[in-house]
Structures are given as C-alpha cells and as structure tokens.
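Input.
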Amino acid sequence: MSDIAQGQVSMADVSKAFTLRVDGKIQTVQALKSVSFDVKQAEIVTLIGPSGCGKTTALRILMGLETASRGRVSVGGKRVNGCGYDRGLVFQHAELLPWLTAAQNVMFGLEMKGVRGAELKDTAMRYLDLVGLKDAANRRPYQLSGGMKQRVGIARALAIDPEVLLMDEPFGALDAQTRETLQGELLEIQARTKKTIIFVTHDLDEAVLLADRIIVMRAGSIQESIEVPLLRPRGELGALRGTSEFAEARYTVWKALHSAEAVH
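Output.
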C-alpha cells in the first residue's frame, strides 16, 4: 500500500509544446518548460503570473484535458492518464447545462460516475446544502445569479468526491462583493472537506487570502514558490486585508510578480 497521501499532487519536469499553423507556416509554442512542484494533502496552492505564462495549461494537464509533452504528473501516487474522478474541475464560468435544474446539474457528474437511485438525489442535495443552495435546487441556470451558478459548479465538482479540486479563475467574472463572499465560503468548505485545492488566479489579493503557498509563474516556468504565513482559520477576509501580516505577504508576492512581468 502506498504511503503517499491521497490528495498529494506532483508535477515532475513537465513540459508542454503546442504546434500551430500561422499564415501557412508551422510554429511551435512552448507553453510549459520543465515545471516541477508538489502539493500536499489538504493544502491550498494558487498559481499566479502574467497572461500566457502557463497557469491554465498546467491545470489542464493536471485534470487530464491536455497531455504533457514530457514529464510525469500524478495524484495520490497514481499517474494522470486522462480525466478521472480523483480530480474535480471548476471553470471560470460555471458551464451549467441550461436545460437542467441546479440539482440535476450536480447529479450529472454523479450519474457519469454510476451513482443511481436515492443516493443520487441525496448526494446532490447534500452538496447543494454545503454551498448554501439547497433552496434553489429546482431553479434552472437562467434563474441563478453569477455567484449562485459558481456555487452550483463547486457543488458539482465536489459531489464526485475528488481527491483534488482544480479551480481555473472561478471568481474572475464576478463582482467584488460576490467574489469576496465566495472566497470566504471556499475556505469554509475546504476546512470542512479537507480537499486539496489548486487555484489559478490573476488576482494578487485573492492568491494571498486563499493560499497556503503561492507559485509565481512566468513564460512557462516557475519563478518562485512563496509560503503564505497566515494562520487558519482566516476568519473575516475583509478584516484580514488590514493586517500587517497580509500586507507583508502581499508585497512579497507583488515583488515576485513584477520580476516575472519584467522578464516576460
């Protein structure tokens, strides 16, 4: 039996090149260059960096939506080979099926996993309750706000009970107030479920507020890995922003980001 924790993630020497046809000519774009990092069980790690630095490509490779050109990717000691129920993905836009209710959208992934009968509905309702949407179970996506749709997306990803939750700028399209509310709710959910989370963001404050560790990327490579010295639970995020600890952590990441942007 493996002594590797189920939620542990490893990317080892991962590179990814895309071949494109531009003006009739074949060009190779190097999206990732020898990227290596580990994520411990129940850790929240954020990936941040300039646009085009490879954050989303790394996440898609972890999910199994893209295949690395070189290197090894594993979750819980098992090599990633395509998508699997050990990983759940939350997109920037919830991507809900518009003809299904909130509950049915959560059930969709469960049905694909083979869950049937009373367990199907019970599980969907339990995770809608976890994200505060039990009373909206029968609403269709057009009847939900942007924040509610994202909650459904999180519930759908969690319902299959993945070891790792991958999140690609899930709050990026939301207004500031809704975004801060969902950041706090995500931390509460993670505290209850102990899920390992890898979170892509462009927002510096968000990276610091959520993460145990921040990986700063540039031009397909890791620029720096920064530990966030903020204790958990983090309480009221608005109040946390006013502390010297938050300011110091933010400045450390800001310096690394500006270094990455200068090189980029």
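The two ends are 44 Å apart (CA to CA).
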